[in-house]
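Journal club side-thread
Mid-discussion, someone asked how the predicted structure for our own chain would compare to the paper's figures. Pasting it here so we can look after the session.
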Amino acid sequence: MEITIKIAKGAGMLLIAGFLAWRALVTNLADYYASQETPEAAIGALRWRSDQPAALYQRGVALATSEPTEAERLWRAAAWANPTDALVYLALAAQWAKAGRQTAAVKLAEIADALGPLRSPVLARSALFWLEQERPDRALARWSMLLRTRPETSAQLFPLLAQLVENPPSRPLLHPLLANPPDWWDRFFAHVARNVTQTEPVVFLYQNRNRYGTLPLMEEQRVYLDRLWKENRWLEAYLAWLNGLDERQTKVLGHVYNGGFEAPITHLGFDWRMSSPRGAMVEAIETYGTRGGKALHVSFNGERVRFQHVVQYLFLDAGRYRLQGRGRSDGLKAERGMRWRVRCVGASAVLAESEPFVGSDEWRNFTAEFTIPDQGCPAQLLRLELDGRAELDFEAQGGVWFDDLAIARQD
């Protein structure tokens, strides 16, 4: 009798184990099919397990247009099987909104927002729902979270956000983001600055951003100034650049900014823009005979180079001026030497040019008088150039130094 009981117990345990194993197999197979996220796979998942929540949701999505009643039944069943799936609530909310049940639909969407604020599909679906409900403020909040968690969505979302900026009545929606810019804001600002048709939306974003008393970041200022440059809005560009200078930078202001080359060079706005092309080296370094320690040094290795790679934009009123500075040739071999020249931006005519620097010499002063015309010259260009006409003129070797560049008004 005792043996019979033990055998019965063992058989019962085997049956339970077999049932659990079968149940686990069924569940795993159903979950596997549901994870494929295709209409066919959803049907397969429901064959193994009729209450698999993800498959119920997917099947409902597939039937939403052709069989809305059946789709709603499936979504209700999915919500019963998994009450925490925000996507199911949003699907039902969209269905109810189409049927005119706006109040119930909004409540479901609010539940979904509370359940799944960080899941990308939920954020995207929620934003779409709120847009359809003409609540762009809530859609914007969902987009903001989506851009934070999935930066790659910027390709789709930045153009939509840009439309809000381009439309003046919708700009107040952006005030919360301007008051406390999210980490993706600089990328969005760069997108707007480079892509919108009108410049005014770019100005709006730049001027209304809360920087908490700090100066604009260099990259933000760069894309803003680039846009103003593109539109030839020189006064706005100059003022924006001035407002971005720190205390140290304001100390080297003048008609030529940082003419002694002592401050760090930003290559931004109305600061120096320098580069070293092949065959030449450009740097601001210490040398003897300077008043502040540093000077501009340009050296050549003998290759042929059309050197025009030290530039500063100027913002001078019409009138008479004198360009002045100090230079020192350091074994410079070049057919026609190096000259400083001033032109109106976009024009080829030279307003002023310095004497040429070539050979070897000690520090010496130079000056050049010039006049800014009343019309057609809102901004100017000061540039150091290797002078030349024929190709052989642009072969250079040796170096040259410059310091204490300035422009003084003469009237």
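Post-session note: The CA atoms of residues 39 and 62 lie 6 Å apart.
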